[in-house]
Design a protein that fits this description.
The complex is a heterodimer of chains A (about 375) and B (about 550). In chain A, about 45% of the residues lie in helices and about 15% in strands. Chain A is an alpha+beta fold. Chain A has three domains: about 1-75 and about 80-110, Helix Hairpins, CATH 1.10.287; about 120-260, Cupredoxins -  blue copper proteins (Immunoglobulin-like); about 265-370, Cytochrome c-like domain (Cytochrome Bc1 Complex, Chain D, domain 2), CATH 1.10.760. In chain A, the strands form two sheets. Chain A has a five-stranded mixed beta sheet. In chain A, strands 4-10-9-6-7 form a five-stranded mixed beta sheet. Chain B is mainly α and about 550 residues long. Chain B has a single domain, classed as Cytochrome C Oxidase, Chain A, CATH 1.20.210. Chain B has helices at about 30-35, 40-70, 80-115, 125-140, 170-195, 210-240, 255-270, 275-290, 295-310, 325-355, 360-385, 385-395, 395-425, 435-460, 475-505. In chain B, α9 runs antiparallel to α10. The chains are: A alpha+beta (about 375), B mainly alpha (about 550). Chains A and B meet through α1, α2, α3, β7 and β9 of A and α3, α9, α10, α11 and α12 of B. Bound molecules: protoporphyrin IX containing FE and copper (II) ion. Protoporphyrin IX containing FE binds next to α10, α11, α12 and α13 of chain B. Chain A: It is an enzyme of class 7 (translocase). Chain A: Belongs to the cytochrome c oxidase subunit 2 family. Chain A: InterPro entries: CcO_II, CcO_II-like_C, Copper_CuA, Cupredoxin, Cyt_c-like_dom, Cyt_c-like_dom_sf, Cyt_c_oxidase_su2, Cyt_c_oxidase_su2_TM_dom.
Chain lengths: ~375, ~550
């Protein structure tokens, strides 16, 4: 028994030591919104309730184990019932739980009130990146992991925000109520930023609501929380919160860029221009499944390099990229990419990695198809 | 501590009741055929236990692959595709191949002995239920070698990741799960039939040992929910192969329906994996505290209420899928409520210890560790029940910590406690206490090193089911991986202890433990192949 005690004390001091040496967080962050702080305080309350119950219950248990050992000559009593004690230990936990349920209910009600938002953002999960659309603002973009492969494979030292960096963060205003509409193009994902206490599944065929009112400018990082296939670990969420006026000018800037891009649809693009643009799009969107060199991963993801069936049928190629292939992981990209991007990536796929079809697909042609 | 153990009861105690011994009736097949054709509950029980132990090691190796990859940030040993197959197979094998068959094996051995029956009520069915399992799991494991790999969508196999986006081998996964499910249902029917029909004369329901009671209730749960699992995987099968769209949104289907169906099976399933453990612990603690179980009746009622409530809490696994507010509130309240009967059980065990005369045999050590560590899992369960907070906990390592605490030092420790407790009855020899204590302490330390840090990595924001993680989670993961290796290796001590006990050791009398009361201790040790051919004289003990 003495050994047991020594062990328990040893373990305790180990944990104490560990807690002081671990510089990084090991508790839920309190976060930067009202809701996140309420959740944090619920979490701490229920935690301390558990600690107190634990101390009492394990205290009685270890006392009994120590005091009533046969080796100390303990003789066993013979009682095996006591109604009043049993009523007490059923009723007291019940009361504690009611006490806990009340504030939890209040918080949940607040979390569910997504009305009167100042800004609506559509969040679409895709294997394996996030697509954001500022509804009514004509601004949308895709946000993918920007940590280089070489860091993941250990060929290069891992950066500070390893696996938590994206090419284009979601930019949000501070102090305004932002409503998220979550959906998915393929499997179920879950959009999660701990500091904002927003975690919501994005589900194909459903639109879920959630909302946030961020209080401090800053960069907040999170990850996809629902297993969504191969690169589930590699679809981070990054939110950049800006002061209201900075946000407004950022949004105006992005709107202008979008308009410029839209005007590109009407002009004739050269092969080189399309190839260059197509390579970017391919790398950001298609390469996770079809591989950077177009070799695919049979049987699920067909190879594109040297794919005769595809090269011989230009119309089918366009159709597959625009509309997806139902019953397979191949998604429809018609609403996620703009006509320039679509035309560029199809041109790229038909001319890269030894595919020498020589075909050029013009944005105007795609535009016409989309309008049909 | 060795010197603190009391002397074992002497062999003179080994008086057995009238029905204790029976004679061989007929020539039995030998060699492999004997095991293939056996209808004897003890032999089938042994088969189940050996099968379960085999699966425990296979599932354990998969877990060690996962932990090895997670030892450091970055991808070192395996690629994400294979990593996902390892987490999925680990979960499936441990749940359906290790924990459930272990409990069925213990039921096969002990339920007839504890109710004074000569065998299970349906012996041939019993043989069939067992032999389905090796076939099912061979098939399941073989999917790892198929093109596209094995199941990679998690043990909860959410659609459409497990349908439209699944590897081609998924159809085999469905078939093997169907077989395992049929095995469970048949096993459950057999257990119910045995308990309700073959009890010794004079044994009323409220005289039954708690292991029998918890298994009776578990068997009803199994019959209620395994068909739901069968239904949901059949819908998957249709979506994959016959063009239906139950779960395919593009065809008008509903991916959330999958989760409702899965968890309507899945939540009772987690209780299927813990109720028999409650029964085992309720046998061991009174034995080594030398005092009757406190609150027998309230234990039975608590088990029954947990079973009933377990049908009303399923959506606590779905707090972030976008349920309406009233549904969230309903499932939050019911989930919190289930903690009450769970608490009652823990309090009863502790009241049994109070003013007892306690010794610390290996079986008791595991049972006591069960009480403490299962409670820790209960505490985190209570935290997870708080729906607003679950928005932060859900799908993180905090959940992984929770269910491993209730399942590893919970269910699995109880199984090991049961094995150490009943080994003298099975083999006629006591297990080696020194070896048992080594196994115990290594396991306790290993389990806590593995799973305690997961609470922290989860709260700090680490999602579950990822092969690579951000740098702030590195320390916790390293500790977990070291602990997992330690836990895994120490299970070799368990195997060694069991083999040693089968081969020899200090001889055990019929009543191997001084404080043990139930009927199984009235037949000789080792229990002969046939027992209770004539029903025993049953005298109710004080419950
Ligand atoms: C006091 C009793 C318990 C409560 C209140 C409770 C509550 C919960 C809650 C709310 C979750 C969902 C967490 C999430 O996904 O966000 C959960 C998950 C889980 N619980 Fe419990 N639990 C309890 C006891 C148990 C027991 C006894 C077992 C099994 C022996 C168990 C096994 C599991 C498993 C396997 C999961 C996770 C399944 C998965 O997502 O893979 N729990 N529990
Ligand atoms: Cu549950």
């Amino acid at each position: 028994m003495r050994k047991t005690l020594a062990w328990i004390m040893g373990a305790g001091s180990f944990l104490g030591l560990a807690s002081s040496t671990l510089a990084n967080g090991w508790n839920m962050p309190a976060g930067v919104t009202d809701v996140s702080r309420e959740i944090y305080s619920l979490h701490m309350t229920i935690f301390w309730i558990c600690v107190v119950i634990g101390i009492v219950v394990f205290g009685v248990m270890f006392y009994s184990l120590f005091r009533y050992r046969r080796s100390r000559g303990a003789k066993s009593a013979n009682f095996h019932e006591n109604t009043s004690v049993e009523v007490v230990w059923t009723a007291v936990p019940l009361l504690i739980l009611v006490g806990m349920a009340l504030p939890a209910t209040a918080t949940l009600k607040r979390m569910y009130d997504a009305s009167e938002a100042d800004l609506d953002v559509m969040v679409t999960g895709q294997q394996w990146r996030w697509h954001y659309e500022y509804l009514g603002e004509n601004v949308s973009f895709t946000s993918s992991l920007s940590t280089p492969r070489s860091q993941i494979n250990g060929e290069e030292e891992k950066g500070e925000n390893y696996l938590l960096d994206v090419d284009q963060p979601l930019v949000l205003p501070v102090g305004r109520k932002v409503r998220f509409l979550m959906t998915s193009d393929d499997v179920i994902h879950s959009w999660w930023v701990p500091d904002l206490a927003v975690k919501q599944d994005s589900i194909p065929g459903f639109v879920n609501e959630n909302w946030v009112r961020i209080e401090e400018p800053g960069i907040y990082r999170g990850q996809c929380a629902e297993l969504c296939g191969k690169d589930h670990a590699f679809m981070p969420v990054v939110v950049r919160a800006l002061e209201g006026d900075e946000f407004d000018s950022w949004l105006a800037e992005r709107r202008k860029e979008a308009e410029a891009e839209a005007s590109g649809v009407d002009r004739e693009w050269s092969m080189d221009e399309l190839m260059e643009r197509g390579e970017q799009v391919y790398g950001a969107i298609c390469a996770t499944c079809h591989q950077p060199d177009g070799s695919g991963a049979e049987p699920t993801f067909p190879a594109l390099a040297g794919n005769e069936a595809l090269l011989n049928d230009r119309d089918r190629h366009i159709d597959v990229v625009l509309n997806g292939v139902s019953g397979t992981p191949m998604a429809a990209f018609r609403s996620n990419l703009n006509p320039v991007e679509l035309a560029a990536v199809i041109t790229y796929e038909r001319n890269a990695w030894g595919n020498e079809s020589g075909d050029v697909v013009q944005p105007s042609e795609i535009q016409a198809l989309l309008e049909q | 501590m060795a010197s603190n153990l009391p002397p074992k009861p002497t062999l003179e105690h080994s008086t057995t009741t009238s029905g204790g011994l029976a004679h061989e009736h007929h020539e039995r097949p030998r060699g492999m055929l004997r095991w293939l054709l056996t209808t004897n509950h003890k032999e089938i029980g042994t088969l189940y236990l050996i099968f379960s132990l085999t699966m425990f090691f296979i599932g354990g190796i998969f877990a060690l692959v996962v932990r090895a990859e997670l030892f450091q940030p970055g991808l070192q040993l395996v690629q994400p595709e294979f990593f996902n197959q390892m987490t999925t197979m680990h979960g499936l094998i441990m749940v359906f191949g290790a924990v459930m068959p272990a409990f069925v094996g213990l039921a096969n051995w002990m339920v007839p002995l504890q109710v004074g029956a000569p065998d299970m009520a349906l012996p041939r069915l019993n043989n069939f239920s067992f032999w389905l399992l090796p076939v099912a799991f061979t098939l399941l494991l073989s999917t790892l070698l198929m093109p596209g790999g094995g199941p990679n969508f998690g043990w909860t196999f959410y659609a459409p990741l497990s349908t439209t986006y699944a590897p081609p081998s998924t159809t085999f996964f469905i078939l093997s799960l169907h077989m395992a499910g049929i095995s469970s249902i048949l096993g459950a029917i057999n257990i119910i039939a045995t308990i309700l029909n073959l009890r010794a004369p004079g044994m009323r329901l409220m005289d039954m040992p708690l292991f029998v009671w918890t298994w009776l209730i578990t068997a009803f749960l199994l019959i209620a929910v395994m068909p739901i699992l069968a239904g949901v995987i059949t819908m998957m099968l249709m979506d994959i192969n016959f063009g239906t769209s139950f779960f395919n949104a593009a065809g008008g289907g509903d991916p959330v329906l999958f989760q409702h169906l899965f968890w309507f099976f899945g939540h009772p399933e987690v209780y299927i994996m813990i109720l028999p453990a409650f029964g085992i612990v309720s046998a061991i603690i009174p034995t080594f505290a030398r005092k009757p179980l406190f609150g027998y009746a309230s234990m039975v009622y608590a088990t029954a209420s947990i079973a009933i409530l377990s049908f009303l809490v399923w959506a606590h696994h779905m707090f972030v899928v976008g349920l309406p507010l009233v549904a969230e509130l309903f499932f939050m309240f019911t989930t919190m409520l289930i903690a009450v009967p769970t608490g009652v059980k823990v309090f009863n065990w502790i009241a049994t210890l109070f003013q007892g005369s306690i010794t610390f045999e290996t079986a008791m050590l595991f049972a006591l560790a069960f009480v403490v560590l299962f409670s820790i899992g209960g505490f985190s369960g209570l935290m997870l029940a708080i729906a607003p907070a679950d928005f932060q906990y859900h799908d993180t390592y905090f959940v992984v910590a929770h269910f491993h605490y209730v399942l590893v030092p919970g269910a699995i420790f109880a199984i090991m406690a049961g094995v150490y407790y009943w080994l003298p009855k099975w083999t006629g020899h006591y297990p080696d206490e020194r070896l048992g204590r080594w196994h115990f302490w290594m396991s306790v330390i290993g389990v806590n090193l593995t799973f305690f840090p997961m609470h922290f990595s989860g709260l700090a924001g680490m999602p579950r089911r990822i092969p690579d993680y951000a740098l702030q989670f590195a320390d916790f993961n390293m500790v977990s991986s070291v602990g997992a290796l330690m836990f895994g290796v120490s299970q070799l001590l368990f195997v060694w202890g069991v083999i040693k006990c089968v081969r020899g050791g200090e001889k055990a009398p019929a009543k191997a433990w001084e404080g043990a009361e139930d009927l199984e201790w009235s037949v000789p040790s080792p229990a002969p192949l046939h027992t209770f051919d004539t029903p025993p004289d049953f005298k109710p003990v004080t419950h």
